[in-house]
Design brief:
Layout (H helix, E strand, L loop, with lengths): L1 E5 L3 H12 L3 E6 L2 H10 L2 E4 L5 H4 L8 E4 L8 H19 L6 E7 L9 E3 L10 H20 L3 E6 L1 E3 L5 H8 L11 E2 L1 E3 H14 L5 E4 L5 E2 H12 L22 E3 L2 H7 L8 H9 L5
Parallel strand pairs: 1-2, 1-4, 2-3, 4-5, 5-7, 6-13, 7-11, 8-10
Antiparallel strand pairs: 9-12
Helix pairs in contact: 1-7, 4-5
């Protein structure tokens, strides 16, 4: 398949690698010469364009079988979130209108679920996030799902949990640096997924995701902070983190939530089997290169 990736960062590059490994031809949108060089070195075909500037897209023929939106606003504020996730998405959809792909996959976030009580959450659960950035992500979903419903655009929405993997992972990195702290009794529930499984789930959605549907991309085991740190302590021989003097303030990006996000629909409908079913398998692979 001729596949275009809009957003060739931490996830996009791995996605491109897995797609090429399966025999697909992969292009990546890039805004700078440096990014173009990175894509070329990885074997992807760079296309100079910026989704926030529709005139740059107009110079490219939209001749792709699959398109993946996995752009990010890392480090950005509300304006950058809106520029990329809402306006950039609309620009991409307008560009593709003349020649829609067979499948379009959008990667959002489980941050759109605002639950704080540790309750079970699936794709039918309420989405009422408190944080403005999460509200923007929800707005982007609605733009895409409206296009799927009203114009039969073949869009699939993936809601990604907290991503970790090579060189990345908030809780593991904080623990190894000695900066981690337990919030109260440590009963806040965390949801995670390994980068390689994000890429694998995107491919599964490209192959068999139902247009207009939402799938949670999260591993098989939501875990409390306390259980996570207890496992890390037993595995590394290091002490448990101290209890925070006060609860960690809510992130300005996604907010502090506590919920048990289910991946049942992803596994049931797309038959995706996780390479790292829980944080244990994923963290062990990361720890091999981190411990003295």
């Amino acid at each position: 398949m001729r596949t275009l990736i809009a957003g060739c960062g931490y996830v996009g590059l791995e996605l491109g690698r897995q797609l090429m490994q399966q025999g697909h031809k992969v292009w990546g949108l890039c805004r700078t010469d440096n990014t173009a060089a990175i894509l070329s070195a990885a074997g992807l075909l760079p296309l100079a364009a910026d989704i926030t500037r529709p005139e740059t897209l107009a110079a490219i023929a939209p001749e792709f079988d699959w398109v993946v939106f996995c752009a990010s606003a890392t480090g950005g504020g509300l304006k950058e979130y809106r520029d990329i996730y809402v306006d950039g998405l609309r620009n991409l959809l307008a560009w593709l209108a003349a020649a829609p792909p067979q499948r379009f996959v959008y990667t959002g976030s489980t941050g759109v679920y605002g639950q704080t009580d540790g309750s079970a959450v699936d794709e039918t659960s309420p989405t009422e996030p408190a944080e403005e950035t999460a509200q923007i992500l929800l707005e982007a979903e609605r733009v895409l799902l409206t296009s799927a419903r009203e114009r039969h655009f073949p869009a699939v929405v993936l809601r990604l949990a907290g991503i970790y993997g090579p060189g990345r992972g908030h809780w593991l990195r904080q623990y190894l640096k000695g900066d981690a702290r337990l919030e109260g009794r440590g009963d806040r529930v965390l949801n995670m997924v390994h980068r390689d499984d994000v890429a694998g789930a995107v491919i599964a959605a490209l192959q068999s995701g139902r247009p207009g549907e939402i799938y949670n991309v999260v591993d098989n085991e939501p875990v409390s902070q306390l259980v996570l740190f207890q496992w890390l302590s037993a595995t590394t021989g290091r002490p448990l983190p101290a209890v925070a003097v006060q609860a960690e303030p809510a992130s300005r990006k996604r907010g502090t939530t506590s919920k048990q996000v289910s991946n049942g629909k992803l596994r049931r409908e797309l038959h995706y089997e996780f390479k790292h079913p829980t944080f244990r398998e994923g963290f062990l692979s990361e720890l091999q290169g981190s411990l003295p």
